Amino acid sequence: MTGSFEGKVALVTGATSGIGRATAIAFGRQGASVVVAGRREAEGFETVAQIEALGAAAKFVQTDVSRSADVENMVRTAVLTYGKLDCAINNASVGWPSGLKRLHEYSEAEWYEVSDINEKGVWLCMRSELKQMLHQEPDGDAGLRGVITNVGSVASLRAGPTAPYTASKHAVLGLTRSAALEYGRDAIRVNALCPGVVQTDMVNPGVTVPTEMAEMFVAANRLGRWGKPDEIADAILYSCSDESTFMTGHALVIDGGLSA
Ligand SMILES: NC(=O)c1ccc[n+]([C@@H]2O[C@H](COP(=O)([O-])OP(=O)(O)OC[C@H]3O[C@@H](n4cnc5c(N)ncnc54)[C@H](O)[C@@H]3O)[C@@H](O)[C@H]2O)c1
């Protein structure tokens, strides 16, 4: 990738760990000013410290993406701090907080526990980000007002672990495609990044998934190994860069060949 993010402002939700943290740091490495959004304060400040150590600017905004007031504050803080919002990465998500169960075993509360964050949270973020981007002047050779990348999953395109998670990740792709159609003429690009199995807290053998299930996921990867958060971060930066200015409404699958 040759594009630089010097002078750009990037916002990443769920930047307190895993893919979100790797993405926030990658933006900082490329010279962007980074808004680090997430629920956990200590982990958020740790991401900020890692970006500042690279010589870039970063600010933590404590945000629960399922709460509209938090999300509005997140975007407002980004604009008050850095003056604009060029790239928004809606990455925050939960997996299966009430466990791996069959569809009929979930309660209504357990269903909403996932969809509130993974589906409504992405919509709330896009709503605030799009309102801001629509007010910005077109910028750069491609004349864009902004770029949004939503982090979906291979489970945005096919069945993944648990019905609530799979349904919510299909919704992320639906939101992405819908927004790409609605805001293309406003010079705003919207894409989804669909990772395969990546070594993070969400897929932790023996903790969040049975070890045999993790081994099965990895065995299904044609490259025969876990994905790394940095490998997803690189693709997210590409989706926001001047190397992908004609890409919108796209589901960019980065999965080591899992879905091949
Ligand atoms: N790890 C994988 O194998 C994998 C595969 C496909 C998709 N993904 C997606 O990648 C993204 C990042 O996940 P990860 O693998 O880095 O796992 P992770 O658990 O490390 O990251 C998820 C982050 O979202 C945050 N979060 C959860 N609920 C939140 C809320 N309400 N408000 C704000 N932040 C919240 C968590 O605290 C955490 O920091 C997610 O969208 C996930 O669905 C991961």
Q: Quick gist of this model?
A:
With 260 residues, the protein is α/β, with parallel strands linked by helices. The protein is built from seven helices and seven strands; from the N terminus they run E-H-E-H-E-H-E-H-E-H-E-H-H-E.
Question: What this model shows, in words?
Answer:
The chain has 260 residues and is α/β, with parallel strands linked by helices. It has one domain (9-199, 228-254): NAD(P)-binding Rossmann-like Domain (Rossmann fold, 3-Layer(aba) Sandwich), CATH 3.40.50. Helix content is 42%, strand content 15%. The protein has seven helices and seven strands, in the order βαβαβαβαβαβααβ. It has helices at residues 18-29, 41-52, 68-82, 108-134, 163-183, 211-220, 229-240; strands at residues 9-13, 33-38, 58-62, 87-90, 146-151, 188-195, 251-254. It has a seven-stranded parallel beta sheet with strand order 3-2-1-4-5-6-7, sandwiched between helices. The longest helix has 27 residues, at 108-134. The protein is globular and about 50 Å long. The mean pLDDT is 96. The protein binds nicotinamide-adenine-dinucleotide. Nicotinamide-adenine-dinucleotide (NAD) binds at residues 13-14, 16-20, 38-40, 63-66, 91-94, 117, 121, 151, 153, 195, 197-198, 200-203. The site of nicotinamide-adenine-dinucleotide has 29 residues, from helix 1 and helix 4.
